[in-house]
Amino acid sequence: MNIAERPPKAGQPYLYLAPLDGLRFFAFLAVFGHHLPSLPASAALMKLHQYGWVGVELFFAISAYLFFHLLNAEAAITGRISVWRFYMRRMLRIYPLMMAFPVAMLVLYGATADGIARLAALGLFLDNFVTVFRGYNISIPYTAHLWTLSFEFQLYLIIPFVFIAYRKFGRRAFLFGAGAVLAYCFLARMAVFAAGAKHPVIWVTPFLRPESIIAGMLLFVLRPQWAWQYSAGGALLAGTVFLMTDMPWQSAVGSAASYPLAAIMCAGLIDTALRAPWAAALTSVPYLTALGRISFGLYVFHPLSIALAKQALPSSPAASADLGDYALLFAASLAITIALSAASYLAFEIRVERLKGRFAVVNGRAAASPVPALGQG
User: How far apart, in whole angstroms, are the C-alpha atoms of residue 19 and residue 356?
Assistant: First the structure.
């Protein structure tokens, strides 16, 4: 039995935050809606299609908050953190499925030289930078979205050292440093945009738009003492302005404002989910936390699932502009995604999770269940 499957030892805090698993599922739903066909007949669904990319920002912010949460507990218990154990946990969480899925796509749809090259880019966590020069990965079917994992892992590389700096120099110095980094990245982003860089250069480059990752860390460092209603209100206000702002690749205003607004909204949502009783109850519903637990698989499989659902259904909502057709596509795609993700989790990922538990120092996960649908987040 690994550390993720047993109660904490005496004196060791139980660190699982169920609401964040529920939020993960909502983050996935936003990305899922973004990748479904657009439906001009519905203003709300058009907004979801256009702005659903913010789900990736919510994933980033949740991860950053949790890393600081768990590293802080590790430091409190052991007096230090193990950087190599952190990297091993991250590798085991991401790498097996991240590589197994593209390999399966190459086997099913045929391997090309460019496909092998993009597989290598994924394996080296460089696909976001390859995307700058070669465009999204269409050489391996249904994997274009996996550049985000390279983006995320590049930020993982520095997070333990950022945490060590926070522990050494204190909160005030950390806040000053975070502000300086945000200012530098903002100016760099504006300079790159003004230089005429084509999309997706800024979009796939971590040091040009790290706002959501930094927001997650800042939320933990600040540990808000204000009423949760202020966080909820801030998330609502930031989200409203975000939905009224150009996409970041459409204009200078969009590039300047979209990422900070998304980060504020995500931080507000996380704080609200953790501290507002109604939000904590909603995001801790067992079936939501179960789906949040397999959210990595949901993210990996959903483009393939949408394509399979389109092939199985007789009509296209994009062509018919029919809300009923869209609802049918949504439901079929989501059902296939959940089925593939649950199967992957039960057959493959849960074994990797047990191995990952060998490198855990603190218990940051709910008790493992052989069937995620039973609700163990």
Answer: 22
